[in-house]
Design brief:
Strand content: 5-15%
Structural class: alpha/beta
Shape: globular
Oligomer: single chain
Distance between the termini: 41 Å
Number of helices: 14
Number of domains: 2
Number of strands: 10
Helix content: 40-55%
Radius of gyration: 18 Å
Largest sheet: 6 strands, mixed
CATH topology of the largest domain: Rossmann fold
């Protein structure tokens, strides 16, 4: 993937900030004490849809309409947060939205997408099957297919990293969860554009290790996505351009188990009183795993989303 310039990143951030305020970044004292070093959280749980993805949708639709194209309707596939982003941005431009989710998807994420005006279709056992069905429906219905990974999506979500690294340019390490890769590619783009030395570490689920194995082997490796708690990390087939960027610029990928993610969700709630969905807590789970490695360093984690179903969160908090 060709990395965007600082001018492109600043333009995208301007588009995002017309719809939402910058999210905060805090170094919570209790969290730092628990993890043994200074840890900054980038609070993407404070966006209008409770996740960082909203930034990408805003920029994607801005650029789509600036090009002179206004489709009759749009369609996409998601596990939830990308779908909310698409529905949120499309509604601002009065575009009908169809969203395909895997069967058994998060009930509350589904409700949130419907509340934003989306027609919801359940299909397939995982995200990959839902995406393939969405492509078929796009062709059959004449709808514009919004991809889950695209340069405009990356430029949009990169605005979180622009905010964070402007505020804290001396960060030693930034941990970023990897779903399909827009979040970490955005962070890499900002780090490179600002000429900083911050180490960027990807985080994936040990129960959905496609990116970890692909990073290790240097080629696309498909792996089952069996995580039961971090649905935002449930990628079976990596995005080639994202993998290329991650392999070129990220230091490593840390794999976290569902148990480690659940513990990180509990730690976040008890030390900051912020709710985190599984993917949102994954970066903190990686810091806990690597606490000896980062001791004494200034680190940050992206709390990428808080959209966890109430019954799931209650079970996690109960241990």
């Amino acid at each position: 993937m060709h990395l965007p310039t600082l001018k492109q990143l600043e333009h995208a951030a301007h588009v995002v900030q017309r719809a939402m305020q910058p999210t905060p970044q805090y170094a919570w004292p209790l969290l730092g004490a628990r993890l043994g070093t200074q840890v900054w959280l980038k609070h993407e749980n404070h966006t209008p849809v409770g996740a960082f993805k909203v930034r990408g949708g805003l920029v994607y639709f801005h650029e789509l309409l600036q090009s002179g194209m206004k489709p009759a309707g749009v369609i996409t596939a998601t596990r939830g947060n990308h779908g909310q982003s698409v529905a949120f941005a499309a509604r601002r431009h009065d575009l009908p939205v169809t969203i395909v989710v895997p069967t058994g998807n998060s009930r509350e994420k589904n409700d949130a997408m419907r509340a934003l005006g989306a027609e919801l279709i359940e299909h397939g056992d995982d995200f990959q099957a839902a995406r393939e069905h969405a492509n078929e429906l796009a062709e059959a219905r004449g709808l514009h297919m919004v991809p889950s990974f695209h340069p405009f999506l990356v430029q949009g979500v990169a605005s979180y990293a622009l905010e964070l690294l402007h505020a804290q340019p001396d960060l030693d390490v930034l941990y970023v969860p990897i779903g399909l890769g827009s979040g970490i590619c955005g962070a890499i783009a900002v780090r490179e554009a600002l000429g900083l030395k911050t180490e960027i570490v990807g985080v994936c689920s040990a129960d959905a290790p496609a990116y970890a194995r692909s990073f290790e082997y240097g080629e696309i490796v498909e792996r089952p996505a069996r995580t039961q708690i971090a649905d935002g990390l449930a990628c079976r087939v990596p995005e080639p351009s994202a993998l290329e960027t991650i392999r070129a610029h990220a230091s490593r990928i840390v794999e976290v188990t569902d148990d480690e993610v659940a513990e990180a969700m509990r730690v976040l709630f008890s030390t900051t009183h912020n709710a985190a969905e599984g993917a949102g807590a994954a970066a903190v789970a990686a810091i806990i795993q690597e606490r000896d490695r980062v001791a004494g360093r200034k680190v940050a984690a992206v709390l990428s989303g808080s959209n966890v179903d109430r019954d799931v969160f209650a079970k996690v908090l109960a241990g």
